[in-house]
Structure formats: C-alpha cells, structure tokens
Amino acid sequence: MAKKIPEPTKAPQSRAFLVGVEFRGEQTILPLEESLEELALLAKTAGLEVVGELTQRLDHPNPETYIGAGKVEELQMLVEETLAEVVIFDSELSPRHLRELEERLGPNVQVSDRTALILEIFAQHASTREGILQVELAQYEYRLPRLTRAWTHLARQAGGGGGRTGSTGGVGLRGPGETQLEVDRREIRKRISNLKAELEKVREHRQRYRAQRKRNQVPVVALVGYTNAGKSTLLNTLARSEVYVANQLFATLDPTTRRVDLPGSHTVLFTDTVGFIQKLPTQLVAAFRATLEEISEADLLVHVVDITHPSAQAQWQSVMATLEEIGAGSIPVLTVFNKIDRLKDPSVLEAASAAIGNTLPISGLTGQGLPDFVRTLETMLYETLTPVHVHLPYQQGQLISMFHEHGQISRVEHVRGGVQIQGFIPGRMLTRFQPFQVKKKPEAEESEE
C-alpha cells in the first residue's frame, strides 16, 4: 500500500532519494544539476528529508524502468544504504515505469515523480474551496491511469481536504464480471466529472466578478513569475497588506487581489498568482484554468524575476513560455528584476537587462526602485496609446462608448452588424478590445484588391 507523504509539521520526516535523468539532445530550461536542486527544494517544501541523489545521461528512456538496468541496481543499493522510504524522479513517469520500479525496489519503498510531488505540495497548501477542488481534480486525473490496486489509499490521499474525498466511497456495487479495480476506476471517473462541474460554477462566478470589474473600468495588474520570485512580498509593499510570504515554493496558491492607489490619482487592482515552475504538470494547468484566467484577463502583467537566482534568465524564459501556453502571450508585460538588495555582483543585472530588455530593477522587500516602477506602470496603463483596428458588434455598445471616451479615433466605418474603428486606446484597455481586432490581410491579398 502506498504511503502518504507527511505534512511538513509532522516528525519524523520521510527520507527521500532523488533521481535525475538528462536525455541527449533534449531542450530543457534548467541543466540537470540545477533541476535536481529545484526538486530537492520541492521535496523539502513537501516535508521530506533528502538523503541522496543519482543522475544518468541517456539517449532515450528505458521502456521498462526509465533508467538503465545497471542504474536500477545502483539505485537499489543506495536506497538500502540511505534507508530511503521514497524515490522521486525529476520527470513524469509512465504507469509502466512506476510499476516496474516499485517491483524492483520492493514493497517498503514508494516510487514517485516530480508531477506527483508538486500535486502533493498543492494539496498541502490549498486553503480555499476553489484551490482544494482544483488540486483534487488534478490528483485524480494524474492517478487514474496509474491505478493498479484498491482505491482505499488513494481516496484518503487525494485533494488535501481531509475526509471529503473519500465520501464518494470507492466501494460500489459491482456489475456482472466487474473487478474491484474497474469499480474503483468508474468511481474516480464519476468524481472527476463532479469536480469539473463544481469548478465550472467557480469559473462562471469569476467571470461575473471580472465583468463587474471591467464595468467599473478598474485596470487589473497580474503579478506573474517563477515560484519564490517575491511576488507576494512586492504586493505587500505596494498595498501595505499582509499576504502570506514564505521562503518556499508555492507559498501562494489561490489568487489574492489588493487595491493600490497610484500617485496620479488612479486606482489599480493587483492580483498575486501562483508561481510557475519548469515541467509544470499539465494536470495543474488544466485544473487551475479558472485561476489562470485571472492572468489571461489582466490588463497588464508584471513579470517578477528573482535576479539573484543563478538561472534567472532561464526562469524568465520558462514563465514566458507558460504565458503563451495559457493564452496570455499578447498581454503587455513589464519585467522587473526583484531582490536587488541581495545582489552582490552588479554585472549580473547588466547582463540580464541586455539579454531580456525593457526591465526595471527593484526590491519588493526594501522598496528600492519602486517609485520608478510605479511611474512606469502608470504610464503603461494610462498614458501609452496602442494602435488598434476593431470590429465591434452593435451589442457591444459599452466598448464603442469606451473607445469614444478614452481613445483617439482615426477612422469609423459602419458595416453590417456593427462598426469598425481604427485608432489608439490606453494600454490598460487593450485586452478588452483584443477579441474584436480585425486581422490584417496578407500583403498578397491587399495587392490583388
């Protein structure tokens, strides 16, 4: 029976052994050694004691055990020597890999992977109903294809919500010829369906809330960045609030929104979002759709980068790739290099600024650089005018009025079903007009006309 990873406050801690594999020719954000360091921090966040690690470079995964047969034997010996209770791979393992490795390492050793570890951390940290539902859904979708035994242990583990998950049972009436495993899978699929329905209600509630904010014309700035980059500290300083801050990964799961009054008599809503990470599980991206929409619906993204991290540029690249993946790639971005109060070598800042461009150095903790940051933010939201060409249906009367009131109109053309407007609008309103933008025709078509 699989053992649950204990809560961080429980003692003694389970002993974890880490395994990292690098495949030749594979494009990764972090090199193997740094990726394992990140995995070790994840394990620590989950309340585990890391007792050793093993690495291997391969052309491709072993179809049975992921790592080579010789490395499996070496792993067996190291696990025995270190008395490790759980082995965690720095990549997502297939159901077959998990099964084969557990058979070779024995019944007293749990085999896990990065995805399961991140899901466990999320389960420990989720506090709101939305967060708990999202984590529970992600756990079930991850574990369903890996289910090889009775569901009782799984029902107790999933969701981080105590006994609620197990309330669906896991013990159902068997149909003709059904095995207990088939019954368990059917129960889990039913629970997944129920969770998706509940999360859809959450999504609809968020959409109504966002629509209200847009009617009030209060711009929303989403703080995004790699986990532990200092987003919550920055929000606390800007809003003089007390959002939970901890020097650990995924300290913030549920989005937190705070009102901030800017010097130019403008009001902005800042939203602190969950930190990104390399190899972010696809189950989490899907399950946290309602939360991630807070990012994709924002008027401006402030990308917070921990400039003191040795892989700061790689982390920046990882976050930008994830933003594209969730449909937020077209939103204006202001990149800030955070924690400059702890930066010992100024040349690091210069090199990163040259590589990324259009950045500001700040310290969310001490407030250094924040006056320039706030001025730049205000300019991007209220003073920078962006050229747009939109086709607005007559039903979108509010947007038509908004363009006339806040924008600069160059051309108006009434067409069937609506009005086409060309002109300039403030940066804070860009996302509201993006769904109605007129796509530019290819040059070949324009020349034919």
TrEMBL record:
<keyword id="KW-0479">Metal-binding</keyword>
<dbReference type="GO" id="GO:0005737">
    <property type="term" value="C:cytoplasm"/>
</dbReference>
<feature type="binding site">
    <location>
        <begin position="225"/>
        <end position="232"/>
    </location>
    <ligand>
        <name>GTP</name>
    </ligand>
</feature>
<feature type="compositionally biased region" description="Gly residues">
    <location>
        <begin position="158"/>
        <end position="175"/>
    </location>
</feature>
<protein>
    <recommendedName>
        <fullName>GTPase HflX</fullName>
    </recommendedName>
</protein>
<feature type="domain" description="Hflx-type G">
    <location>
        <begin position="219"/>
        <end position="385"/>
    </location>
</feature>
<feature type="binding site">
    <location>
        <begin position="363"/>
        <end position="365"/>
    </location>
    <ligand>
        <name>GTP</name>
    </ligand>
</feature>
<keyword id="KW-0547">Nucleotide-binding</keyword>
<dbReference type="InterPro" id="IPR025121">
    <property type="entry name" value="GTPase_HflX_N"/>
</dbReference>
<keyword id="KW-0175">Coiled coil</keyword>
<comment type="function">
    <text>GTPase that associates with the 50S ribosomal subunit and may have a role during protein synthesis or ribosome biogenesis.</text>
</comment>
<comment type="similarity">
    <text>Belongs to the TRAFAC class OBG-HflX-like GTPase superfamily. HflX GTPase family.</text>
</comment>
<dbReference type="GO" id="GO:0003924">
    <property type="term" value="F:GTPase activity"/>
</dbReference>
<dbReference type="Pfam" id="PF13167">
    <property type="entry name" value="GTP-bdg_N"/>
</dbReference>
<dbReference type="Pfam" id="PF01926">
    <property type="entry name" value="MMR_HSR1"/>
</dbReference>
<dbReference type="InterPro" id="IPR016496">
    <property type="entry name" value="GTPase_HflX"/>
</dbReference>
<feature type="coiled-coil region">
    <location>
        <begin position="178"/>
        <end position="215"/>
    </location>
</feature>
<dbReference type="GO" id="GO:0043022">
    <property type="term" value="F:ribosome binding"/>
</dbReference>
<feature type="binding site">
    <location>
        <begin position="338"/>
        <end position="341"/>
    </location>
    <ligand>
        <name>GTP</name>
    </ligand>
</feature>
<comment type="subunit">
    <text>Monomer. Associates with the 50S ribosomal subunit.</text>
</comment>
<keyword id="KW-0963">Cytoplasm</keyword>
<dbReference type="InterPro" id="IPR032305">
    <property type="entry name" value="GTP-bd_M"/>
</dbReference>
<dbReference type="GO" id="GO:0005525">
    <property type="term" value="F:GTP binding"/>
</dbReference>
<dbReference type="InterPro" id="IPR027417">
    <property type="entry name" value="P-loop_NTPase"/>
</dbReference>
<feature type="binding site">
    <location>
        <begin position="250"/>
        <end position="254"/>
    </location>
    <ligand>
        <name>GTP</name>
    </ligand>
</feature>
<dbReference type="Pfam" id="PF16360">
    <property type="entry name" value="GTP-bdg_M"/>
</dbReference>
<dbReference type="InterPro" id="IPR030394">
    <property type="entry name" value="G_HFLX_dom"/>
</dbReference>
<feature type="binding site">
    <location>
        <begin position="272"/>
        <end position="275"/>
    </location>
    <ligand>
        <name>GTP</name>
    </ligand>
</feature>
<dbReference type="GO" id="GO:0046872">
    <property type="term" value="F:metal ion binding"/>
</dbReference>
<feature type="region of interest" description="Disordered">
    <location>
        <begin position="156"/>
        <end position="177"/>
    </location>
</feature>
<feature type="binding site">
    <location>
        <position position="232"/>
    </location>
    <ligand>
        <name>Mg(2+)</name>
    </ligand>
</feature>
<dbReference type="InterPro" id="IPR006073">
    <property type="entry name" value="GTP-bd"/>
</dbReference>
<keyword id="KW-0342">GTP-binding</keyword>
<feature type="binding site">
    <location>
        <position position="252"/>
    </location>
    <ligand>
        <name>Mg(2+)</name>
    </ligand>
</feature>
<keyword id="KW-0460">Magnesium</keyword>
<dbReference type="InterPro" id="IPR042108">
    <property type="entry name" value="GTPase_HflX_N_sf"/>
</dbReference>
